[in-house]
Amino acid sequence: MAGAAVRSVLGAIQFLTVLPIRGETVPPGRAAVFFPIVGAWLGLLGAAVYEALRPHVPFAALLVVVVWILVTGALHEDGLGDVADGVRAGRTPERIAAIMEDSRVGTYGAAAIVVSVLVRWNAVAALPPPVTPKLVAALALSRASMVLLGWASRPYGEGIGTVFMSGLTTPVAAAVIVQALAASFLCGPMAGVVLAGAAGAVVLVARAWFHARLGGVTGDCMGATGQVVEMVSLVLLSCAACTS
Predict the structure, then answer these.
(1) Could you check whether the bond before residue 130 is cis, i.e. omega within 30 degrees of 0?
(2) pTM higher than 0.85
(3) Other residues' Cβ atoms within 10 Å of the Cβ of residue 91
(4) Any idea what the Cα angle at residue 226 is, between residues 26 and 145, rounded to 5°?
(5) I want to staple 43 with a disulfide (CB 3.0 to 4.6 A). Which of 116, 135, 203, 231 is the partner?
(6) Torsion angle, CA of 137/114/226/219, rounded to 10 degrees?
(7) Domain spans of the chain, in order of start
(8) Is 41 in contact with 26 (CB distance < 8 Å)?
(9) For 169-201, how does the pLDDT look when each residue is reduced to its tens digit (9 = 90+)?
């Protein structure tokens, strides 16, 4: 049992980051139960960077976002850019999917990535103390939202997203929900309710929208949703009213 859990954690790290993981892991769908844990670790990493440079808050906040991008290989930023390009230029599900699969980044994709970086940079810079639980909550919710969107949706196409979704089960989703709620309430009762509600709303809207436009969900769709949840969570946490 312990060995299986370790392999699942390593599988989650391998899927969500560029860290070199050696040894036997498990498929991403089975490892998804630990996605919020990896998100929480990314939040802790960001908090360590922030605290080390706290006298220079704007620079510290920017470096936090840069570190996240480097450690994750810009995986989810890539998904956000692909979705922005696809839904802007595509008129049919087939055309949208073809654009999303194109490795080139278009104007709308580039704009979406820039907006994501700017929003997160400014939101992190505006976070009231303590910063650590807020970064942990936002990053854990972001990764949880990707799992929940995949679990609640139909797969589109035959890419890695479909392989990932095939391994998502109700017990995995339930465990992810528990972790997401626990992470949310690290910031206090009011913040916990607001964050969990906002993340849930984003997932529901994303599911309805992707099903209407594409007929299902791809890996890019899940990555884009995670980015939106991360932005929304950080913006909400930067508001004093949310954390009071």
Answers:
(1) yes
(2) yes
(3) 9
(4) 70
(5) 135
(6) -150
(7) 36-236
(8) no
(9) 999 999 999 999 999 999 999 999 999 999 999
